Amino acid sequence: MSLLPVEDALDRLLSRAKPVVETETVLLAYADGRILGEDVTARLTQPPFNSSAMDGYALRAEDAPQLGSVMTVIGTASAGHAFDGKVGKGEAVRIFTGAPVPEGADTILIQEDADLLDNNQIRSTFEVVRDRHIRPKGQDFMEGEVVLQKDRLLSFADVTVAAGMNHAELRVYRKPLVAILATGDELVQPGSVPKSDQIIASNTFGVAAIARNAGAEVLDLGIISDDKELIGKAIERAITAKADVLVTLGGASVGDHDLVQASLKAKGMELDFWRIAMRPGKPLMVGAIDTMQVLGLPGNPVASLVCSLLFLEPLVQKLARTSSRRREVQAVTETDLKANDHRQDYVRATLAIRDDGTLVAKSFDKQDSSMMKTLANSHALIVRPPNAPPLKAGDPCPIILLRI
Asked: pTM for the whole thing?
């Protein structure tokens, strides 16, 4: 089987992906970052009455046609404590921000623009204009108004207005479920004491983080030894859990000890493709078991994570209805880069910013796909297309941001 170009592989993966349609109800406190599954309508009017926007005095504008007009204060209105009465000719009510404007009053004279006199009287020291500093009833929203629309990504401002509309819960789309299966006799969990022929399993944590940040829930199926029956049972767990995506880590090629692909086929997987024209990450596998997408990632940590950024993240984003992160930007290379071969290369690099805002990418000398520390210290991946010519220092180069 020939190597598939990266863009073709991504197009084929995403072409089968269908956004989730099931919804669930979540408490408002947990709705931030979720996608609305239905329109949200105001259950009340806000503000529910004409309210004062300032501390001052509620009065009739016609009673203060000029500076020096005098009114008699007949009571007080504060938030939660309305004035029980009517403002008549030559009268005013001491009012505080958020309080209902008393009947009869049509403007607010702020306290800085009024002199206090004896006998509960005030005198205006500033022009009085009708409707000034009054928030009219329904200025924000009216009962029955659709304020938040279906398919909206909820922000901190959205959950605030939802609370103001008297919603304690919201209906949102469920998060897609990504099951992650690591395989290999050589792998042990972090915190263990590995034997001389074992290594610590690390890939699951980075892949899970990428999936969660893209909008998924994660089901960790654990580390399964190189046993076809045990691998098959783990695959069945993913099927039973109704996972939208099954991610396998390692064991996807055709070596004597690489049993994942065979186990998946035994459970009904239709293999779409494997082996991508990219570095790192050539042994990427894509298939499906019924509606569950299967993504087989390479075992090398860097290859696994690069493939997750390029394939798993956009897949989850489509399933979850979240917006794609814009990782691809332009930079210039700090050093010369040699010509590339037939595979698209993703070169780990640090970034600096010039005074003019130009991003400058400096590649690491060593790019082995097992070197996790280099990836952790990288800010970006320099993209070297297939058969790209050499670049001189200062030449433009496309990059993929790792930290956004």
From this structure: 0.88
pLDDT at 258: 66
Residues in CB range of 369: below 8 A, 6 or more apart? 279, 280, 281, 298, 300, 301, 302, 303
β-sheet bridge partners, residue 59: 92, 107
User: Looking at the predicted structure, is the pLDDT value of residue 97 above 50?
Assistant: yes
Find out whether 245 and 316 touch, Cβ atoms under 8 Å. yes
- Scored b (16 or more CB within 10 A) or e, 207-216 reads bbebbeebbb
Q: How buried is residue 100: exposed, middle or buried, by Cβ count under 10 Å (0-12/13-18/19+)?
A: buried
Q: How far is CA 203 from the centre of its chain?
A: 22
- Which residues, other chains included, contact 395 with Cβ-Cβ below 8 Å and sequence gap of 6+? 332, 333
Structure tokens at 326: 């814009």
- Residue for token digits 């049509």? 106
Who's near 296: CB < 8 A, 6+ residues apart? 247, 248, 252, 260, 261, 264, 274, 283, 284, 285, 286, 287
Q: How far apart are the first and last CA of the chain?
A: 36
